Amino acid sequence: MEALLLYIDPGTGGMLFTILFSLLGGLFYFVGTMFVKLKYKVGGRGVAVDRNKTPLIVFSDHKRYWNTFEPILDELERRGVKAKFLTMSEDDPGLSKQYENISAEYIGTGNKAFSRLNLLNAGVVLATTPGLEVLMWKRSKKVDYYVHIPHAANDITLYRMFGIDFFDAILLPGTFHAAQVRKMEEMRSLPQKDLCVVGVPYLDGMKKRLEKEGTCEGKERKTVLVAPSWGESGILRRYGSSLIDALLKTGYEIIIRPHPQSFTAEKDYMDQLMKQYGEDSGVKWNRDNDNFDVLRRSDIIISDFSGVVVDFALVFDKPVIYADVSFDPAPYDQAWFDEELWTFRFMREIGLQLSEDQFDHIKDIIDECLTNERFSAARKKAREECWQHIGCSAERVADYLQLKMAKLNG
Questions:
Q1: Are residues 211 and 353 in the same domain?
Q2: How does pLDDT run across 336-373, given as a tens digit for each residue?
Q3: What pLDDT sits at residue 230?
Q4: In angstroms, rounded to a whole number, what is the distance separating the alpha carbons of residues 184 and 221?
Q5: 243/331 Cα distance (integer angstroms)
Q6: Does 239 map to a domain?
């Protein structure tokens, strides 16, 4: 009798299993729907927005770029914009800056940092770092938009090859930079990026500091700053001790500020040169993270194609000597261009060229630059070409980022 009570005929059993699976299916659907509603917020257009996505990430590969990011982050903080600042420098000044809306994080260096970057989940990523999709830094599938902002006001073609090709947008110092980008896109059959002329945030910051702190008065001697680019075409690699010896004979204070990359890419050479010209040589070596003080102190700069020439001439309104180096464009985007670099034309107008056969008369060349008034007018003209929207660049960057984030959020 008990066995008969447990018996279910095949037809009834099939019906019961059908009902059971229907109930389970409905339950799983309900749970799944609730999960999706919790994870996503559906906007007016029906666009799903990932609640875990950071609206804005600002990435810096070195602390020396804090002078670019600080005015931008200050403006975003003032507007109450939420963002994250990620840096590869453990002692980045941005890590100690107190913000309410912006968090800062050290993400390590090398593979550790790039592993993190390649998996970011963000609406917009802003960076000065070139080379996206070229070397170790890859576009994350969870990042909607990559924006590049240059860390110098000179030619944008002076990046290493393909350095800016895979960004979605570039925020530019001046209009001539936009023409260079468009030509590269055409030559390489690249889709057009969004280009916006915003000015130069760090130059605005320097200008404000100079207005506040004033010029460096009361020095006993004129100060000559040697500030090269790095690599084989730079003046330190090209001329080395012959240039330094000639400068020491002038009796002026000589400061050498190598490009920070030199201590990585050409470390052995720099170690040898700094040992040769130690503390008793009369040469002062400058490796400050912030170059403001050394630029303010200097009366004249000797360089090659380094972007610091632009900073020195335009912000501090002081003369320039540019070394006669045989610039090799092969590693740079400039290799695709037939026309001369804007930087070289700019330097011809604002200063004098120095070749190795003139080293014996280098003091006369320095004195000529220091006293000739024609270079001042040329600096004013150059300022109009490569540094637009003076004094309001951080605001323009913030405007662009906010508009882009709003558009991405539908």
A1: yes
A2: 888 888 877 877 888 888 888 899 999 999 999 888 88
A3: 77
A4: 46
A5: 25
A6: yes
Could you list the residue range(s) of the whole structural domain that residue 108 is in?
A: 50-200+390-408
Residue 216 clears pLDDT 90, i.e. is over it: no
From residue 227, how far is each of 147, 245, 259 by CA, in Å? 29, 16, 7
Which token pair is 316?
């501090």
The pLDDT of residue 325: 61
CATH number for the domain harbouring residue 107: 3.40.50.2000
pTM (2 decimals)?
0.74
Q: Report the domain count for the chain.
A: 2
Strand order in the sheet with 83-87: 102-106, 83-87, 54-60, 122-127, 143-148, 169-172, 194-197
Same domain, 334 and 400: no
Say yes or no: 353 and 395 in one domain: no
- Tokens read off for 232: 């084989």
pLDDT at 326: 65
In this structure, is the dihedral angle defined by the CA atoms of residues 326, 329, 335 and 339, taken in order, positive or negative?
Answer: negative
Q: Are residues 191 and 243 in the same domain?
A: no
Q: Exposed e or buried b for every residue in 292-302, given b needs 16+ CB within 10 A? A: bebbbbbbbbb
264-270 CB contacts, 8 Å cutoff, 24+ apart: 265/230, 265/231, 266/230, 266/231, 266/237, 269/236, 269/237
pLDDT single digits (tens) 184-206: 999 999 999 999 999 999 999 99
Residues 348 and 300 in one domain: yes
116 and 156 housed in the same domain = yes
**Per the domain annotation, does 61 fall within a domain?**
yes
* pLDDT one-digit tens code per residue, 306-316: 778 888 888 99
